[in-house]
Amino acid sequence: MQISSVLQSDVTRLKKVEYVRFPLRLGHDVFTEGRITEYSEDRMVKLMLAYQLLMELHEVEDFMACATSAMRESVNGMEVRDRIAGRTGIHINIIDGQKEAELTNNVVVKALDNGQYLHVDVGGGSTELNLYMDQVKMASKSFKLGSVRLLEGKESKSAWKAMQNWIQDHVNYAIPVKAVGTGGNINKLFDLSSKLTEHSTSLEEIRRMRDYIASFSLEDRINKLMLNPDRADVVVPAGDIYIAAMEWSGAEVVKVPDVGLKDGILQLLYERHLRKKKPAVMK
């Protein structure tokens, strides 16, 4: 959850006021059992109540809650959503892969220069790919490959092949291509890597850092590398997805702008706020 305030000057900016991240790991349930367990639902209720109290303290004017691949695929996802709404007052929007990509793209595109870019967004259960040419999205696709899904061994060879084929069918190899990476795992790999610029590094460096982390046991990743437990186990499989996408596309450089779905949601909320303030046109 991120709470932001609007700063009005020459350029409107959103300032982060509060940020809370808690790993529920719904994918562990869904990718192994196909449904969200009662235990996980209870934890979701507690988390939504905590978020609700924080929003009340900060006097939040508007909010939006979104769920992605785990609740999309859960056989009881909508039932859980409805029960949580009844118990907490927070309605969770279960968004499809296209909407997830759209919200993320709305903020990612601002970080792009002209040229060809392959945007790779790796979540727990899915990976969204988007191809840009001169800041215009040319194609997009969602794949059932994600860090938690790989950790649980629930990915399929066909999903890997489908992603490879999509990249090779859509990338123009006659034009240089760069990658854009979003998601918590690429942010962590980037933070630990040597940089080319403030917001970019090389494929070689991402490979090196992925292999370096993989050389440690899970316990040592937490105690020696000081990774959060929920990051320590998924960062390597997530790295495999970013690396594969870059290799298949021919991208040797990845830009990591540190934006994602939450930033797209914030932008959507701000635009909705502006529409509410706009006076009605009398006819």
TrEMBL record:
<dbReference type="InterPro" id="IPR043129">
    <property type="entry name" value="ATPase_NBD"/>
</dbReference>
<dbReference type="Pfam" id="PF02541">
    <property type="entry name" value="Ppx-GppA"/>
</dbReference>
<dbReference type="InterPro" id="IPR003695">
    <property type="entry name" value="Ppx_GppA_N"/>
</dbReference>
<protein>
    <submittedName>
        <fullName>Rod shape-determining protein</fullName>
    </submittedName>
</protein>
<feature type="domain" description="Ppx/GppA phosphatase N-terminal">
    <location>
        <begin position="14"/>
        <end position="267"/>
    </location>
</feature>
<dbReference type="InterPro" id="IPR050273">
    <property type="entry name" value="GppA/Ppx_hydrolase"/>
</dbReference>
